[in-house]
Amino acid sequence: MKLLYLLFGFMTLLANAQENFVKINGSTNVNKFQCVNNKFKNDGGVYTFSEKNLPNIVLKVADFDCGNRMMTKDFQKILNAEKYPNMTIKFINFIKNQDGFNALVEVKMMNQSKRYNIEFDIENNKLIGRKNVKFSDFNITPPKKMGGMIVVKDDLDLIFSLATKI
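^ YceI-like domain-containing protein, sequence as received from the core. Prediction below:
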């Protein structure tokens, strides 16, 4: 019986270690927000990065959760989820350097594409990357609420975590 518990614990730990997510952190003049999509998976369980096999990740905008039903609905409305249901993250190149990895990544949403150079590190078999982006990069005007009393800032922090074997 103890072996069964150990096996279950190990499988749970392994499943948690391979969780993938994309977080978008932002702020308003009143507070901060975080919207997370962790409902995507690679068919093989982990992402591989080689010259011939770079990931192309398709995220459903409806799968982002901002921790608050109204905020999630507003976020999906800002990204026009009904007309543009997917956001795509495509790795164009991926290079190992002294400190970690550099990648050229194309982010596409609402029929707008923008390329970013992003530095990645490996932590617990996860490839972690972070990039500051803006709503305006994608021709999105940051929203205002309550007659302009609450203003969403243009700056966003995009964070990737991908289970990987490198």
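The two ends are 35 Å apart (CA to CA).
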